[in-house]
Amino acid sequence: MQKRVVFRNTWLPYILVAPQILVTLVFFFWPSWQALESSFYIEDAFGFSREWVGLRNYTELFADPGYLKSFRTTLIFGLCVTFLAMSISLALAVAANRVLRAATVYRTFLIWPYAVAPALAGVIWYFLMNPSLGIVSYWLRALGYDWNHYVNGEQALGMVIVAAAWKQISYNFLFFLAGLQSIPKSLVEAAAIDRAGPGRRFWTIVFPLLSPTTFFLLVVNLVYAFFDTFSLIHATTEGGPADATSILVFRVYNTGFIGQDYGSSAAQSVVLMALVVAMTFVQFRYIDRRVNY
Amino acid sequence: MAQVEIRNLGKVYPGKVRAVSGASADIADGEFIVLVGPSGCGKSTILRMIAGLEEVSEGDLFIGGDRVNDLEPGERDIAMVFQNYALYPHMTVRRNMEYGLRNEGLPKDQIAARIAEAARTLRLEEYLDRKPRQLSGGQRQRVAMGRAIVREPKAFLFDEPLSNLDAKLRTQLRAELRALHVRLGATFIYVTHDQVEAMSLADRIIVMNAGQIEQIGAPLELYQKPATRFVAEFIGTPAMNFVEARPVTAGLKIDLPEGASLPGPCAMVDQLAAPAHIGFRPEDLVLEPQDGAAGLRLDLQVMFAEQLGADTVIHARLAGQSDPVTIRVESAQNPAPGATMTAYAPNAALHVFDAATGQRL
Lengths: 293, 361
Known about the structure:
The structure holds two protein chains of two kinds.
Chain A: H1 11-38, E1 41-43, E2 50-52, H2 56-63, H3 65-98, H4 103-111, H5 118-129, H6 135-142, H7 153-181, H8 185-193, H9 198-209, H10 211-227, H11 230-235, H12 248-258, H13 262-286
Antiparallel strand pairs in A: 1-2
Helix pairs in contact in A: 1-13, 2-13, 3-7, 3-10, 5-7, 7-10, 8-9, 10-13, 12-13
Chain B: E1 4-13, E2 17-27, E3 32-36, H1 43-51, E4 58-63, E5 66-67, E6 78-81, H2 93-104, H3 108-121, H4 137-149, E7 155-159, H5 167-184, E8 187-192, H6 195-201, E9 204-209, E10 212-217, H7 219-224, H8 229-234, E11 241-249, E12 253-255, E13 260-261, H9 267-270, E14 276-280, E15 296-307, E16 311-318, E17 325-330, E18 340-345, E19 351-354
Helix pairs in contact in B: 2-3, 2-4
Pfam families (chain B): ABC_tran, TOBE_2
Keywords (chain B): ATP-binding, Cell inner membrane, Cell membrane, Membrane, Nucleotide-binding, Sugar transport, Translocase, Transport
Domain ABC transporter (chain B): 4-235
């Protein structure tokens, strides 16, 4: 039961929540409103004049093959990052859950990458993979694989996927480990007595019981890949080569600050906003229902 | 159905923590055996070793004549009921019971038949499509039993299955368990810390203390002829009373605490050569001296009396020792605190244990 506090003064609760509301209004609603507003205008690069164009920014956007390609890139990027980050971290968490000795040390090491700033993570991978001085590209070349992400768009996309996933593994790992530890040991033991082998125990008992964690992480990882990877891409490929790694959020920046097309940039932001609202809605709506028990 | 044999079983955890040592027992086919002892005595460890959930560090383990030390839990053909039920929360009752059978690869019609049979036995028919969280504690425990029954295993293992239930339900399920054992005729190995549960369920009881088996025997055998002081104290409520006896000169004079005396001859105590503990049960004490069975005379001061309805338990103090003496008398008695009284323990009711080793003399 939740305990409800009853205020005798009607204005006191409003004053108490006012700072939060103020911050939200100034730093979230106002810019969002501005973006929404300017997405209906075409503005000159210096901001001296603007012209109402209605939905033209949007219709042009969806008629632009570059933008649609960026949608596809974002989708591939997001799904790959999510899948990679989640599967690796789940494997690591399962392994860490079995470690008995020095478990805390092991866990601490696995959590470190999360403390690395996205831009820095990008630079680390940039150096590792650099065609002329990177150690990984050196190994790849020794294996007979021609690595050059400056030229090859697929390789560039692969690189930012790996870098973005690497950054997110620690976070997922923590949640998966906590999820695994909340599964009573006796359930797995009961399954072992019920003649389920280790693989079957994992897929029929452990994995279904992890589903709330998995679903939560799925949404968080998708949001991360779609929106929080800007600095990583900015620091490494800058969307290139030939827009191969230009995901939607990077394109917003590119259109607005490089191309100085504020109207289109704002329209793209609004599209992204709609996307994140939809994902949050899905999360809130289904996270409780997807819980299996 | 099978006999289970443990021979010199030992368990040492990493860090040289010893949980069990030198445990040997033969459990007959169809026997209801209860492992009982205080927490940390190693009883659950033995059960978990039989189940295959803990590795056997020393000794051998046989189920149905086969050495199973190195078999996986699933290969031992046993079923286990856990204290916290361990039902798969994301599966319905039916799915829970089917799980083991599906893993075995049993044909569907046979699975359905076994589930129907078990559900009827345990009165679970209307709950088959519910999830565990929609059931009460007692129902969950019955599902856990059902999951074990449908497997038709060689032996059933129970790890304190009733301790999460309230007292009334516990008594009810105890009776159901006993009936189930009669109906199935299977080998039951049951762990509990509750000696009343052990006494009421078991064909034979294994009493454990500090990682070792103290005594194996039928409930009445343990009650009437406890092999060690530990068993004597552990079995029976209220617990057995003890007074210390010290021979002053061997075989000539016995030193008892102040207030306790031996009015007549008592062979067991008179011949003591070393310090001993003389035990007597609260229900064996009488308030009138008995002809021809002089026994132990106790001059006591009443501390308080518990009136339990069917009988009354008097807690009294013996001048010469700090441990109180409890006496179980008929319910009409209700002595006032501070009153003095005399009680007698007949010779036949005395249990004498060596003070150093705890062994029965």
